[in-house]
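just leaving the lab so this will be short. what follows is a protein written twice so to speak, once as letters and once as structure tokens for the fold. can you read through it and tell me how you think this chain folds. anything you notice is useful, everything is just below:
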Amino acid sequence: MANITKKVSWSSRPDESGAIGEGTPLLNGSEQQRHGRQLISMYVFISYLAKYALPDSDDVCLLFFFNCNYFKFQSLDYDNIENQLFLEEERRMSHMSFRCLEISRWVVCGLIGFLTGLIACFIDIVVEQLAGIKYQVVKENIEKFTEVGGLSISLLLWAALNSAIVMLGAIIVAFFEPIAAGSGIPQIKCYLNGVKIPRVVRLKTLVVKVCGVICSVVGGLAVGKEGPMIHSGAVVAAGVSQGRSTSLKRDFKIFEYFRRDTEKRDFVSAGAAAGVSAAFGAPVGGVLFSLEEGASFWNQMLTWRIFFASMISTFTLNFFLSIYHNNPGDLSNPGLINFGRFQTDSEAYYLYEIPLFIAMGAIGKFKNFFFFLHTKSYLRGLLGALFNILNYWLTIFRIRYVHRPCLQVMEAMLVAAVTATVSFTMIYFSNDCQPLSPDNTEEYPLQLFCADGEYNAMATAFFNTPERSVRSLFHNQPGSYNPLTLGLFTLTYFFLACWTYGLAVSAGVFIPSLLIGAAWGRLFGILLAIWAVPGKYALIGAAAQLGGIVRMTLSLTVIVVEATGNVTYGLPIMLVLMTAKIVGDYFVEGLYDIHIKLQSVPFLHWEAPATSHWLTAREVMSSPVTCLNRIEKVGTIVDTLSNTSTNHNGFPVVVQPARLCGLILRSQLIVLLKHKVFVELARSRLTHRKLQLKDFRDAYPRFPPIQSIHVSQDERECMMDLTEFMNPTPYTVPQETSLPRVFKLFRALGLRHLVVVDDENNVIGLVTRKDLARYHMGKHGLEELQLAQT
């Protein structure tokens, strides 16, 4: 990136340092030696772009994109504001009121599970019906033209149907709600991490997500419907827990106490877990997913409530699917994907197979290995490296060129048509014919050029929904596929999935990963056919492939074990996933984390970077800080909030000269200005209603902008007393506190602002999420991720 030479800061402070590498001060103009060590500041992520993907002529544009994304994110406020209004409300509440609140939390979690299960049931039934109609029409057309000639018409029909269906799904995503694209798991991970992602839990997002994923799966793309269920469950939780819909402008006057970030994020955790449970029939795995991937605050009661929501979700899906299949009470469909049961003696594993399973895990991890493609010693990971570097290039290409909605729709249609064409071509040229036995479970057996009583094995993988293809790879009898069929399918589906991931459609990467892994895993088992059962190795390959992509360990182990219904596979699956994560993390992060970085989200990991104890709060904090007096002039508050160059969201409240006495948020000041809570007006109006916490909750979460609040010139001269509304006991740290201590306090408590004070309790700085997120460990030790301010 030769044309960007000026060092610029990720935070809101102006950069006062000189050229990079000259030993110039990093933060706040301090020129002290950092305990004899120099912080290696570099353009880490942007350097990767320049080195691996970006031509010099376009890197400025891409840098601008990343900064535009970065500065639109704000933090959630997980800390209770213990001001006078909060204390007065708490004193008014009786013991029975608190018990009713606890019961309400259980009721909300039950509703979350029930509605998430209903949505999953709706998606499953609609996909099955529409896909059945599509495949039946294409199957009859192929059989007709196989006899009389003219199969090109069948190809055109298949491609046209796929393109038309995918076009509908892409249009509603690209034009109406772009945040609904993809699986939504990275966005939910960020939300649970404490980042407020715009529009991620809106009702409109849910509707577009559900309709979009139906179109994507029915349209034959290399995607799955399980990943988006996690996002859907989170949106359901965010809406139900608030007792109203801001999109529909309907307030049901229930659950008003839960209208704050603290409660809402707990319920979103339950919704994400319910989504996992509905997708895989794994309620325990859902709980562990929320614990492992998101929630920074956890307690026993929250665990029980999330588990309750997960159980209700899988039971609801199971119950209604049993009715749909005309078997009421037959609860044998716990999730959207059913792996089938691995309970026969032939599918048992032996001690000598464990090293083979671990080796398969090492293969699977290379799915996320692309930064080191140029190193010859890593060529053994070429398959995974190829997937990631192609997808990474595609993502950069889409950011740069395919950013208009019309182009995104055209790309999705192109991928759908190419997928149908490649699938048809692979089936057409395949001569893998298998006998059609009476106990055959194939949904749409395609004969094509096979003899009577036989079907085309390649069509079993392509001419089907991905979930059924995975199940057939797991459980079809040995000999159902020949090695050439599996090898060609793995290679072809690999590139199709690579191209599809990142389109402007609602889709998940779970099922494509499982399908690719099951294919090469079964191929691995066939090569060991003397003493191996291919289906068993297909399961291990699927787990290795998925684990190599998403880097989930504990939760994914339990999800796969629950989906298979056989706990004896827990050990090999655990070893496979641990191998995939440990070896893969040595090179690069998981796919979701990569895309989180591509969006420049200030994501906080579990721990502060190693070797960062020598950095102090004084060097990390943002300064100078905009402070307000305890009794402040209204005009000053309006001007401060209207200042677009800072756009601060938290303001320390001080007494002269700068001694801290509290902290107040932008949202609180907006509500105070809206209700004209001025000292002079309070004195002149004897009947003036006192503001309550309910007024703040009613404005949550879409607080009006300062530009929408009219303040007259006379009102600007009034005074506002912040004593009653500010948080009088905000968390503070001394300026010499080390970065790991600051990080641990900030993340564990879910803070939005952390005030830095000196020995006399004077405010000298403020630590926010963006100040902490820019430090990480790199190849050269501790590095500071630097992005330009826009």
